[in-house]
Amino acid sequence: MMNEAMQKALNEQVNAEFYSSYFYLGMESYFQSLSLNGFASWMRSQVQEEMFHGMKIYDYIHERGGKAMLGAIDRPEQEWDSPLACFEQVLAHEKKVTDLINNLMDVAIGNRDHATKAFLDWFVSEQVEEEATVGTVVDKLRLIGDNSSALFLLDAELAKRVFTLPVN
Ligand code: FEO
């Protein structure tokens, strides 16, 4: 059984992950409205991935004898000045999520909750991957600038991403 502080912190992260899913859905609609279907498809995979993250923590809380408490989810933005501005916001968001995961890890360590620490290790690695992937897209968009042919090539590349449920 987890202590109250750990359970509260994990519940806040469930909310943050579901907000992330909604945050990416706002971006999915932005890219659909631009007919950049590869970018939209990439965002839809991200929507599913964040939902998976939220459910992974939700299930863990119950597995440890707690109860997941569902909070309100804020309305996301749906307009940006450019694909680059949008992806810069993604990168800033993922850095914020990394901070949240690190804070959760601090609570687990402070409580000597080794089970939760082991559980959170997966999220620590996931955030390294998230930041690296998004950082690469931001770099490419900066190089692309106003070149629409290059933008369509990146759109085709991003269309290849398919979300598959991780095995563990
Ligand atoms: Fe759930 Fe994008 O981190």
Produce the secondary structure layout.
Layout: H1 4-33, H2 37-63, H3 83-110, H4 114-144, H5 148-158
Helix pairs in contact: 1-2, 1-3, 2-5, 3-4
Give structural notes:
This protein is mostly helical. It has helices spanning 4-33, 37-63, 83-110, 114-144, 148-158. The protein is elongated. Helices cover 76% and strands 0% of the residues. It is built from five helices and no strands. MU-OXO-diiron binds next to helix 1, helix 2 and helix 3.
Query: Could you give me the name of the CATH homologous superfamily?
Result: Ferritin, core subunit, four-helix bundle
Question: How far is it from the N-terminal to the C-terminal residue, by CA?
Answer: 22 Å
* Radius of gyration, whole Å: 17 Å
Helix content: over 70%
CATH architecture: Up-down Bundle
Relative strand content: under 5%
Element order, helices and strands?
HHHHH
Main location: cytoplasm
Family: Belongs to the ferritin family. Prokaryotic subfamily.
Protein name: Ferritin
Organism: Candidatus Desulfatifera sulfidica
Brief summary:
By secondary structure, the protein is mainly α.
